[in-house]
Write a structure and sequence with these properties.
Elements lengths: L5 E7 L8 H12 L9 H27 L6 H16 L5 E5 L6 H10 L4 E6 L9 H11 L8 E4 L7 H18 L4 E7 L3 H5 L4 H20 L6 E6 L12 H10 L4 E5 L8 H17 L4 E5 L6 H16 L3
Helix pairs in contact: 1-2, 3-11, 4-5, 6-8, 6-11, 9-10
């Protein structure tokens, strides 16, 4: 029997290769063609996507990407790569690869790399703390597809989510407290998580339950350790796409309402994003700030994602070690 050799695969959503309409169109086409994300019949959805949505949205979205692009590339790509590199340094005997569901490096590329290194026991870590069929399950699908033509497949372990993993909650609390030291305690702190259609939840996706579990865990700790009023903290959902009902309350509508009702100091954290990206750096840090100030708010700040901070790398390391040691 061959010797067991473990490997790690980190997977995030994806990002355009460059902030251009052509690159954004290519990325969105791949992303929005996944039935885990949009499950309309293909004969209806694909003509609409290719004929109307991509030509209209791609140039607009490309401009948004350009506003947040780093010298090294897309923030999501840059931070995910740094996370993988930092983990590899802490685990020199275990190969670590990173991949994206809808852009390069693909899950198949990363899986092939691990297998070429002789790995036969792979731990897959979707970089989504709260499970959803539209994210974590899509990673599972991509891993399965990557192995379809192989005669021999490795042992696989899959981290479904880590919404209440104590080191993750610790890292969020440290981030909030560090931000408070510089910006003060807000009148309201929104936990803005990416939304999903209400229909998904009704069909069994426990994503909203997992989101609430994260927020409740942080809220309890902040109240017990630092005397935070739990009423300050509110869960909202962002990035609605399409016309069907999505999870509420919506982040943008909540921010407008808070400002109109006299809240002057607002902070937002996005704990579902393990790396800053378009949805945090543009939609929240820029767009939500504009909404807040337009309707009477005065002080707005976004609490950055955990990115490649030492706290984040250490919690991922603990999560990996916990799952590698299980059932061995």
């Amino acid at each position: 029997m061959s010797k067991n050799k473990q490997g790690i695969l980190l997977v995030n959503l994806g990002t355009p290769d460059e902030p251009t309409a052509k690159a954004v169109s290519k990325y969105l086409k791949t992303f929005l063609s996944d039935s885990r994300v949009v499950d309309l019949p293909k004969f209806i959805w694909q003509p609409l996507l290719r004929g109307i949505i991509l030509p209209i949205r791609s140039p607009k979205v490309a401009k948004l990407y350009a506003s947040i692009w780093l010298d090294e590339g897309s923030p999501l790509y840059v931070y995910t790569k740094r996370q993988a590199q930092a983990l590899a340094q802490k685990m020199p005997d275990i190969p670590v690869e990173f991949a994206f569901c809808y852009s390069n490096p693909t899950v198949k590329m990363a899986m092939d790399s691990l297998l070429d290194q002789g790995v036969n026991d792979i731990l897959v870590l979707p970089l989504y703390p709260q499970y959803s069929c539209s994210t974590s399950a899509a990673v599972f699908d991509a891993v399965a597809r990557s192995l379809q033509k192989r005669r021999a497949i490795p042992s696989l372990r899959f981290i479904r989510d880590y919404a209440t993993f104590e080191p993750y909650i610790d890292a969020l609390i440290l981030s909030i407290k560090a931000h408070e030291m510089t910006h003060g305690r807000p009148e309201k702190l929104l936990f803005s998580l990416h939304g999903i259609p209400v229909r998904f939840a009704k069909q069994g996706d426990d994503y909203p339950i997992r989101c609430k579990a994260t927020v409740d865990a942080v809220k309890k700790r902040l109240e017990e350790e630092d005397g935070w009023d739990p009423e300050i903290i509110q869960l909202t959902f962002q990035s609605k796409f399409g016309k069907e009902p999505w999870l509420t309350p919506a982040t943008d509508a909540s921010i407008e309402s808070l400002a109109k009702n006299g809240v002057k100091h607002l902070q937002v954290i996005c704990p579902g994003f393990t790396a800053d990206c378009l949805e945090t750096l543009e939609e929240i840090s820029i767009g939500s700030k504009e909404i807040f100030e337009e309707h009477g708010g005065e002080t707005f700040s976004y609490i950055p994602a955990l990115n490649d901070s030492s706290e984040h790398i250490n919690l991922l390391l603990e999560l990996i070690k916990k799952n590698l040691s299980a059932n061995t």
